[in-house]
Amino acid sequence: MKKKVNGFKESLSAYGFLSPWFIGLIVFTGGPIIASFVLSLMKWNLISSPEFVGLDNFKALFDGSTDFLNSLRVTLIFTVISVVVTLFSSLFLATLLNFKIRFMGIFQFFYFIPAVMPSVVMAFVFKLMFNKELGIVNYVLSFFGIDSPPNWLNDTFYVWPTLAITCIFTYATGQMMLIFSSALKEVPQELYEASDIDGASFSQRFFHVTLPAISPIILFNLVVATVNSFNSSFTLLYPLTNGGPGAETEVLSLNIYKYAFKLFDMGYASALAIVLFAIVGVIAFLQFYLSRKSVHYN
């Protein structure tokens, strides 16, 4: 009986420490989700009283009268670019950090700086760097005889490579780099020793020993990068391109902002938010489901 009482007290203490997080989740995450779902069934311009319209806002998404399908296409393109760039660059940097060379802590510090820099600040820095008239990128290109450099952020062709370069320096890369670096240090050394005895090359060791050993971490970073790309694209793209040129980089988060706070159509914006929430959930589920055979937890 005494053990049960002590166990109950320990559980109660644990839930007490966790309660602030649960309260925050319910109030600041669960509440807005429920409110968004309710508003998605309404027509409301923030001035007049909300009017119930049922599923009309969701029907408007697919009837071709709005720019939803273009925003969905742009969002998927940006997500693929962002996830691929951040995942591979962070794994590459983490691999470099695991070589035993001097001053490695200094390199790790500089690699991690983007993780502590606000995305908005970084976006404005890159906007200035890639400015056609004042940017340092075009200034450097002028030394190579390129007198008519690209208008990086206002050209439908060059804007996507520019965004890919920018994604390397987002906070996700620095965070995932440290996670990968820790995972690489936990790979059993006997596996490397066995592969050396078998005469495996560096690439063979990497693809047949290292990657399978850190596959759970790869999956974790993949899911986190995907969710962050969908949910945090606004803080990068709004100051950098504002959805331009035209609507070339107008992702769903920018579309939500436009309809909510520029066109004051809160019902339609909420419907967009619900669809974005559902898309992220489905993609995360598929990532876990499709990785069952390729992720090794032992």
Global structural class: mainly alpha
Query: Whole-Å distance between the termini?
Result: 38 Å
Average pLDDT rating: 86
The helix/strand order is: HEEHHHHHHHHHHHH
Number of strands: 2
Helix content: over 70%
What's the level 1 CATH class? Mainly Alpha
CATH homologous superfamily annotation: MetI-like
> What spatial order of strands do you see in the largest sheet?
1-2
- The shape, in one word, is globular
Observed structural traits:
single chain, mainly alpha, two-stranded antiparallel sheet, 2 strands, MetI-like fold
What is the topology?
Blueprint: H1 2-39, E1 42-43, E2 51-52, H2 56-62, H3 68-97, H4 104-116, H5 119-129, H6 136-142, H7 159-168, H8 171-185, H9 189-197, H10 202-213, H11 215-240, H12 252-261, H13 266-290
Antiparallel strand pairs: 1-2
Written overview of the protein:
The chain is mainly α and 298 residues long. It has a single domain, classed as Orthogonal Bundle (MetI-like fold). It is 71% helix and 1% strand. It contains 13 helices and 2 strands. It has helices at residues 2-39, 56-62, 68-97, 104-116, 119-129, 136-142, 159-168, 171-185, 189-197, 202-213, 215-240, 252-261, 266-290; strands at 42-43, 51-52. Strands 1-2 form a two-stranded antiparallel ribbon. The longest helix has 38 residues, at 2-39. The two termini are 38 Å apart.
